[in-house]
Amino acid sequence: MEKGRLWWAESWSVDPWENLAMEECLWRRTGPGEAGLFLWQNRHTVVIGRHQNPWKECRVDALERDGGRLARRLSGGGAVYHDLGNLNFTFFMGKDLYDFGRQLEVIARAVRSLGIPAEVSGRNDLLAEGRKFSGNAYFRGKHADFHHGTLLVDVDLERLERYLQVSPGKLEGKGVASVRSRVVNLKEMNSRVDGIHCRRALREAFEEEYGELGAPLSLEDLVPRDELVEARGRYAGSLWRFGHTPPFSAAFERRFPWGQVELHFDVVSGVVRSCALFSDALDGELMAQVPRALERASFDPGALVEALTGTFGPEGPEEIEDMKDWLASVLT
């Protein structure tokens, strides 16, 4: 793109992996002195920060069982839920123009233009009457930076709470934990507000700050299809979504009629590296086989249950069948 150019574009895809891939492709094309605005939406998705643990932040199995998708973005920060009641924005800036505080104020100004009080809070949140309607994160590159975030317009807050709720069990690790905040939909503050109003308000506030934008750019003309397909494949792949999970440990405990069981997992890149079992069950030899069966399995309920089935058969001892049901429920 050209030095000093102002531009905007919008995606009508609701595929989170495609939109994150497009975002990366647009960032790679952003040069010095350039400012761009990208508007996009995802359907039924949890997006986690680059250094987060998906199992700590999200009920992954429940999300995917309900037809949702898990995505990991390039930027840091916490986990967020996206549906079509959420509008996402990305500011692309040459290194000389990037100013996070200035960009946050553009968003606040856009929301105020809709008759909703908006203020910047802390490092990266926007609030209306003390409740959060926008979370923001950023990625700093060598040639250009981008800052992106969400506007909660009319999000399904019940689903947001469901999928972002941490599963039972104690999980500890080096990943960055999301900060849970009281949230509010902009539509609750002004019943006439919808996604179209918010798109227009963001464009107008961006123009007021940086200059006239003109017509939207064609994404198809900007980014070759094969480049986008390759990037989408990376974002959709298990290596990026789960393999970049920081090492973590998980511990689960349960009392059964036949004894107490405590399982400890060390997980690296989404795979159980080691497992320890503590139990007062009478069949000590049976219990000793469980950790060996679970090691090297993917850390998700289906894979763990399959690992036990592979070792003990489809109808194993009572203790094993109880543990299958337990693992299937505790990680869902």
CATH topology of the largest domain: BirA Bifunctional Protein, domain 2
Secondary structure tally: strands: 14
CATH architecture of the largest domain: 2-Layer Sandwich
- What is the total number of structural domains? 2
What's the order of the H and E elements?
Answer: EHEEHHEEEHEEEEHEHHHHHEEEHHH
Reported for the largest beta sheet, the result is: 7 strands, mixed
Biggest sheet strand line-up: 1-2-6-10-9-8-7
Q: How much strand? A: 25-35%
Note the overall shape.
Answer: elongated
- Rg to the nearest angstrom? 23 Å
Q: Give the helix proportion (percent range).
A: 25-40%
Quick tags:
single chain, 332 residues, alpha+beta, BirA Bifunctional Protein, domain 2, Enolase-like, domain 1, 2 domains, seven-stranded mixed β-sheet, four-stranded antiparallel β-sheet, 27% strand, elongated
Explain this structure to me?
The chain has 332 residues and is of the alpha+beta class. It folds into two domains: 6-241, 2-Layer Sandwich (BirA Bifunctional Protein, domain 2), CATH 3.30.930; 248-330, Enolase-like, domain 1. Helix content is 36%, strand content 27%. The chain has 13 helices and 14 strands. The protein has helices spanning 16-28, 54-57, 60-65, 100-112, 157-164, 186-189, 195-210, 219-222, 225-236, 238-241, 284-294, 301-312, 318-330, and strands at 6-10, 35-40, 45-48, 69-72, 80-82, 86-94, 119-121, 125-128, 131-140, 144-152, 170-173, 248-256, 259-268, 271-279. The chain has a seven-stranded mixed β-sheet, sandwiched between helices. It has a four-stranded antiparallel β-sheet with strand order 11-12-13-14, covered by helices on one side. Helix 1 (16-28) crosses helix 9 (225-236), helix 4 packs across helix 7 and helix 12 (301-312) packs antiparallel against helix 13. The radius of gyration is 23 Å and the shape is elongated.
